[in-house]
Fold:
Amino acid sequence: MNTQPKASHFIDGDYVEDTAGELIEVIYPATGAVIATLHAATPAILEQALASAQRAQKEWAAWSPTERGRVLRRAAQIMRERNHDLSVLETYDTGKPYQETSVVDATSGADSLEYFGGLIASVTGEHIPLGEDFVYTRREPLGVCVGIGAWNYPTQIACWKGAPALACGNAMIFKPSETTPLCALKVAEILHEAGAPAGVYNVVQGYGAVGASLITDARVDKVSLTGSVPTGRKVYAAAADGVRHVTMELGGKSPLVIFDDADLENAVSGAILGNFYSSGQVCSNGTRVFVQKGIKDAFLKRLAERLADVKMGDPQDPEVNFGPMVSERQRDIVEGFIAKGQEEGATLVTGGQRVDGDGFFLQPTVFADVTDDMTIATDEIFGPVMSVLDFETEEEALRRANDTAFGLAAGVFTSDLTRAHRMAAGFEAGTCYINTYNDAPVEAPFGGSKLSGVGRENSKAAIEHYSQIKGVYVRMGDLEAPF
Ligand code: NDP
Structure:
């Protein structure tokens, strides 16, 4: 596959280039080879993107919601038809195995386009009677939205932000992470092929500085970030200057609580899905696995057996189920955490080693006997490192699960129905799972509480974050005034 895009940016319905921008080398994480070279957006490119988005938004917002929805649904269909090629590209961009990308990335992006494309025509205002007078509400777009993405789900993030934004009549300027800049360009291409007017969905490349300069432009009305908490703080603060709307999808250190009465095989599956999918580079991962003492030995034994079935290798091989880390830098960071875990006295059950070769592979790693204060239990690692912590009672598990500044996700495995719902109600997290982990269907809200974020993506809730309500007061009779 030719992984070099026609040009670095997609603006006003077409690819554009400005080679004066800083060089971005795209590296295939499985081999370390450079697979594309791009350039960061220059001020001239950003100006083009902002001007075209502002102009196109007015035209787009004047379309009926049904017409806008039709474009999104057509784009969803094109994405599904091209799922194979898009998945191969996503695998080159991120290093995630094709076995995952072929069922998760473009498909989840298409779900989002289809869902919001179908929903938007039924999003209406309300009529509020006030005797003879009345108020009606109009749900209006915000204007120009900036999306800034992390590197773990480039296609999905480009769609999860783009689909509700466009459905509501906004235009979007999306800046992917410079680590994975390829896939969002395809999303832009497809949306325009499906009939979106030029300028409605633009992609500009760049490092953090590009995102930072977009956020503070007076033409921007909303910023939606998927990234780490430190970046979130900066972006939130910068957006506050212009009192802009924000959605913050940030990091986590989520708990996964496994009770003695859980189905062992399902609990192990949940822990695997919540720690090792995408080589552990998932924001909602349940990396603090609290295991009740009675099931701990059986859990660790079965987990080690199942991890023996991991198949590492060329991520484009459909048989491979575990890919490299996204970058050398990310692997180094995760290795630092593994060393810290050993230094601080956790028991290394399995893994912990990098794999020889040019790619950025790291073995799936499990630590047991982890205590709440160890660095591997407090900090987001964003790699394939599971920490297993022991507990005895439900009350203790919930208290310790919530004892974190993050609040993205939480999960519980138990066969006790009422306990499962008690735990879900008690978790301080935006997304909770009972006897499963890490599902993210477009129909359900996704997002964090506490430091993990503000706002929700997906579901009807996302409409609230990409539109605003205007109230229109209508007086039917004469108007009295004091003088
Ligand atoms: P970063 O926070 O490093 O970067 C996120 C994006 O923000 C990148 O595009 C980055 O550009 C950009 N950026 C960095 N600094 C600024 C700035 N000052 N102003 C504007 N934009 C800026 O996150 P990662 O890409 O490393 O992704 C990993 C993080 O993302 C983890 O913490 C993870 O939990 C979180 N995440 C959250 C998800 C959620 O839905 N809650 C989902 C997926 C990931 P550049 O890369 O060029 O620096």
About this structure: Residues 148-152, 175, 177-179, 207-208, 211-212, 226-228, 231, 234-235, 249-252, 283, 380, 382, 408, 448, 453 surround NDP (CB under 6 Å). The CA atoms of residues 32 and 73 lie 37 Å apart. The radius of gyration is 23 Å.
